[in-house]
């Protein structure tokens, strides 16, 4: 039972981290595109 809780906690943390990275990369790409356009 404890293994299941730890497994889910790690899964959720990794998912949240991946989401943050995706948002960060997306923001960086938008800035790059805007800079290129100007």
UniProtKB/TrEMBL annotation:
<protein>
    <submittedName>
        <fullName>Uncharacterized protein</fullName>
    </submittedName>
</protein>
<feature type="transmembrane region" description="Helical">
    <location>
        <begin position="6"/>
        <end position="30"/>
    </location>
</feature>
<keyword id="KW-0472">Membrane</keyword>
<keyword id="KW-1133">Transmembrane helix</keyword>
<keyword id="KW-0812">Transmembrane</keyword>
